Amino acid sequence: MEKKLRFDFLDVNCCPYCASNDFKKDGSRNFKQRYRCKNCGKTFYATTGTVFAATKKNERKWRDFVIQMTNESTLLASHEYSGVSRNTSLLWRRKLFACFVELNEDTILHDIIWFDEIYCNVSNKERIYTENGTKLRGISKNKIGILLALDNHGNHFARVMKRGKPNSKDIDEAVDKHFAENSIIYHDEFHEHGLMLKRIKPKQIITCNTRNKSSLKLMQPINQFCAYTRRILELHNGERPDHLQEYVSYACFKQRLKKLPVKERRIEVLRLCAMTRVIYKRHQKPK
Asked: What confidence tens digit (pLDDT) does each residue in 192-226 have?
């Protein structure tokens, strides 16, 4: 009986080398459908130019890994149950997380938007103390700001900002072009939102007093997303700060998977990651 072709669910729209859409099927190799471009003459696969291009593992292991990762399994658990090494589990996580960051960068919120900020602690090695040896209080340089936002269409966005309390410029740069103009904006009374709100020209601005119970209900969507993102960061406590954007992007991505059954989730995660055309390269240590 003929074996099923690997990664056959991935869409092939054009040649990854010259972007021509004039190509044809050219047999298969290692149970992967091969294509040949009529314009440049090169052969390619559905995985060419994606994070799955150089993988030596079969599609089933990737699908199993996706389920374990999205169920918050540890690297050790992924190693024990997926049949891949711990280093491979870490590499695969980094590959998929790089795709989640790219998907987050492509997100544009529109119509009705809620946004707020959360703060997480820096690592103990980077913590700053006063001359007396005591910790800094409040939103200090020992905190990293993260802007979180979502819209009424189920799109989510996250951006890691600098250490300390963000100013108007920090908020504006974090939002960048991810908020569509002529939208209805829900936010709290943080006065540093002013510059960004003036630039994007919203249709309506609704400022919520967080001390008022009725206002808390209006901010419930973003409050729930903030709480969920904190849980993701707590589960992955100990990651280096330079990976923080990956994990908040992962929190955004997981919102897409809420209503998907297991079988569809396995394919949808791999399909969306392949669509980003991200090519992840392992960081080499300097000699």
From this structure: 999 999 999 999 999 998 777 777 889 999 999 99
In 10 A of CB 115, how many CB atoms? 27
Which residue type does 130 have?
T
The answer to whether 149 and 114 have CB atoms below 8 angstroms apart is yes
- The residue among 9, 66, 5, 46 whose CA lies nearest residue 266 is 66
**Residues in the chain where the model's pLDDT stays below 70:** 1-4, 238-239, 282-287
User: Could you tell me if 25 and 228 are in contact, meaning their C-beta atoms sit under 8 angstroms apart?
Assistant: no
State the amino acid at position 249 in one-letter form. Answer: S
Chain centroid to Cα 286, Å, comes to 28
Residue type, 7: F
Entry pTM: 0.89
- Return all residues near 278 (Cβ < 8 A) that are at least 6 apart: 50, 51, 95, 98, 99, 102
Burial classification of residue 73, based on how many CB atoms lie within 10 Å of its CB (0-12 exposed, 13-18 middle, 19 or more buried): middle
Q: What is the rounded CA–CA span in Å between residue 48 and residue 51?
A: 8
Distance CA 237, CA 63 (A): 25
CA 227 to chain centroid? 17
